[in-house]
Amino acid sequence: MNGNVMVRGATVLLITLNLGILGCASSADDVPVRQVIQDANLVDKNYAAADALLARAPWLKERRDPLLAATFVDINNLEASSGLGRVIGEQIGSRFAQQSFTVIEIKMRNNIFVAEGTGELTLSRSVKEISQSHNAAAVIAGTYAVARQSVYVTARLIRATDNLILASYDYVIPLGPDAKALVAAQ
Fold first, then answer.
1. What is the mean pLDDT of residues 18-41?
2. Which residues touch 127 (CB under 8 Å, ≥6 apart)?
3. Ranges for the FlgO domain (predicted)?
């Protein structure tokens, strides 16, 4: 009989210990775990944006008029950009050049003001004036908005003569470590 009591006592002890461990585990589950946001491949995202702009303006492929690629600007301050805004503009312009478009590199021109550290901020100036000085038919420009976990981007192809939006494409970039670093880079 002593043996049965000991086995029952050991069983009760094991059950109690298991419930205690499970209780600790469930309280640990209640602690919010910060999810690590992974960066997207910016080249892929921006090339897809360029391809989408081209798909929305198929007549542009026939004309092959020169284009300007501008720095994308912060939606909350059209006078400001970041490393991310500069990379987006560069990569979308690069994709247009890969598709045999003439893309004018305005950073190499000496007759256009480029604010140091911000890039070519066409949305804060007259698109018509800039494109006329470069004989461009359209400007690739856009904005971005930084949220807690994402960056929301709007890419536009804007006709130079009257600022008419010819094509537009919206997309999201996860705000991972690389994107955060680019946003912080003024």
1. 66
2. 139, 141, 158, 160, 163
3. 47-176
Q: Which CATH superfamily includes the segment(s) 42-184? A: ABC-type transport auxiliary lipoprotein component (3.40.50.10610)
C-alpha–C-alpha distance, residues 171 and 157, integer Å = 15
Strand partners, 73: 143
Q: What is the pLDDT of residue 168?
A: 97
* pLDDT over 90 (residue 52): yes
What angle, 0 to 180 degrees and rounded to 10, lies between the N-to-C axes of helices 177-184 and 83-98? 110
Q: Is residue 50 within a helix (H) or strand (E), and if so which, with residue range?
A: helix 42-56
Mean pLDDT of the chain: 79
Q: pLDDT value at position 9?
A: 55
Task: From 19, 24, 99, select the one nearest 57 (Cα to Cα).
Answer: 99
Ramachandran quadrant class, 119 (left: phi over 0; alpha: psi -120 to 50; beta: rest): left
Q: Which has the higher per-residue pLDDT, 144 or 9?
A: 144
Q: pLDDT tens digits for 134-166?
A: 788 889 999 999 999 999 999 999 988 888 899
CA 96 – CA 83 distance, rounded (Å): 20
What are the residue ranges spanned by the domains of the chain?
A: 1-33, 42-184
How many beta carbons lie within 10 A of that of residue 132, not counting itself? 12
**CB 104, CB 68: distance < 8 Å:** yes
Distance CA(87)–CA(60), nearest Å, equals 23
